[in-house]
Amino acid sequence: MTLRKLSKIASIGMALLGLMVVPLLRAFQAEDATKAVTKKARKSAKDATSNAASSDTNTTNKPAEKTSPADTVKRAKSAPANTVSESEISAAKADGKVWVNTESGVYHKGGQWYGATKQGKFMTEQEAKQAGYKAAKSK
Q1: Which residue range(s) make up the domain with 44?
Q2: Strand pairing category for 98-101 and 106-108
Q3: Using 50, 70 and 90 to split pLDDT, how confident is the model at 138?
Q4: Does residue 58 lie in a domain region?
Q5: How many domains does the chain have?
Q6: Confidence band (pLDDT; 50, 70, 90) for 5?
Q7: Is 83 buried (19+), middle (13-18) or exposed (0-12) by CB count in 10 A?
Q8: Does this model's pTM top 0.85?
Q9: Does residue 63 fall inside a structural domain?
Q10: Domain check: are 83 and 128 in the same one?
């Protein structure tokens, strides 16, 4: 084989390789870009919802606190869900009712989780005991 034939075979091989690999790379890059755009859209939507929620609850004009992602995760895990209004909570407290977390089977007489778990309802302590709910452990 001559050098000319070898170079021609090599150039044909490179052209075929280019025809097969380049479209795959472009498709991969486009998919990657789509994922990045989707992540950005989700993050901006999440930020917009949290900003709207914080502006509804924050009536004072305080500057926004700087928080790290780890702080946000900690707060999300420990913060109450606030499923009922403050007026409902105060009315239930006045009536001597407890807050039953129907998901965990525990009732609260007061404290951080009173009226604030995702799944729950108000009832008298006697009703809660009869339904099989247990009192929350006090700290």
Answers
A1: 1-50
A2: antiparallel
A3: confident
A4: no
A5: 2
A6: confident
A7: middle
A8: no
A9: no
A10: yes
